[in-house]
Amino acid sequence: MKYSIEFSPIFSILRIKLEVGEVIKATTGAMLGLSPGIELKVTTTTGKGFWGSLGAMFGGVKLFSTEYTALQAGELVLAPSAPGDIVYIPMKGGTIFTKVGAYLAGSRELAISAHGSFRAMFSGKGLFLTKITGIGHLFVNSFGAIIEKDLSPGELYRVDTGHIVAFDESVTYKIKRAAKGIFTTWASGEGFVCDYLGPGRIWIQTRKLSSFARLLSPYLYRGSTSSTASDYRKDEKT
To answer: What percent of the chain lies above the pLDDT cut of 70?
Structure first.
């Protein structure tokens, strides 16, 4: 399998060249285009059947994925749903944790499951994450560009939780408020942060989806402020 990441870092696409018999698994809805010799089928994301995937879904993992099998040599092009970057992570038997929705594609052999709970999140001990383990190819996507940072043993680094993309299993983390006091938290615009402790790699996205959504909020359609067809008919009668 050969791949290239193009139009990075904002409108990235993933182009994969598959040889006969090679298989790649991707999140549903990511396919942009493919050669006619590549067959696709829908499968459960976790590989543990419907009920296993249903349990993972409550942790934010998509219930289904799409498997692409090359019956003939050809290419597959994938695109994330949001404008951003794609990074390749070679999996060598370890574990990578990603934010929910960051998984784009990977080898069929990789094990994918949900990690975290509401109790852990509110106690400051965890997040809802996607856990990816095994050997093979892994591609994750972001909102905005991706920064990779390698933490030394004992090195501490703080990241806004909205900018998290992925991190190595060797990295420990703890969730905390960005500032002391409710007013300071509200006034600063910062909610929760994640304290990472090395060794290991972390991947950070340069933009936060929730902040972008707030920016667009004043321009979104609001039905109550718009005239309807019936309003126009009333005006004509008068």
So the answer is: 74
